[in-house]
Amino acid sequence: MGMGYYLMERTVYDADSGRNLTDSTWEYKVPQAADTPRDFRVHILKSTSNPAAAMSTKAIGEPPICLAPLCVTAIKRAVEAYREARGKPRRHLTFDMPLTPERVLMLCETSEQDRLVARET
């Protein structure tokens, strides 16, 4: 949930009619199963202090939201490193959410040539 909120879920409205242009999953992108790491292990600690719950477990609703800003910080540092490596001037950058791939490319100020992937021959 948090990753989608910060990186993918962008709502777009028509400027003239105000109609929501992202009202289905064709346009409104949410995280899918493929966005989860293949090796995603969870270990339940046996010596925690909630004896009323199964194996002293706790709720897991908040961590996805609380930890998601770390994705934004990682992308911010990657953009800054990319800009520095390409000799771009240091300046204040505004990281509006969600940080979609298009917004990240705009922050990087990449050229069209930089966005092309060379084919191996």
Provide a descriptive summary of the structure in words.
With 121 residues, the chain is an all-alpha fold. The chain has a single domain, classed as Aldehyde Oxidoreductase, domain 4. 33% of the residues lie in helices and 0% in strands. The protein has helices at 2-7, 63-67, 69-85, 101-108, 112-115.
Name the poorly predicted regions. none
The biggest sheet, with number of strands, parallel, antiparallel or mixed sense and barrel status, is: none
Count of extended strands: 0
Q: Under the CATH scheme, which class?
A: Alpha Beta
Distance between the termini: 41 Å
Spell the H/E element sequence: HHHHH
What is the CATH homologous superfamily assignment? Aldehyde oxidase/xanthine dehydrogenase, molybdopterin binding domain
Estimated structural class: mainly alpha
**Backbone CA Rg:** 20 Å
CATH fold node name: Aldehyde Oxidoreductase, domain 4
Mean pLDDT: 82
Organism: Macrostomum lignano
Keywords: Molybdenum
GO molecular function, one term: iron ion binding
Protein name: Aldehyde oxidase/xanthine dehydrogenase second molybdopterin binding domain-containing protein
Any chance you could write out the topology, listing elements then pairs?
Elements: H1 2-7, H2 63-67, H3 69-85, H4 101-108, H5 112-115
InterPro entries: Ald_Oxase/xanthine_DH-like, AldOxase/xan_DH_MoCoBD2, AldOxase/xan_DH_Mopterin-bd_sf
Protein name: Aldehyde oxidase/xanthine dehydrogenase second molybdopterin binding domain-containing protein
Keywords: Molybdenum
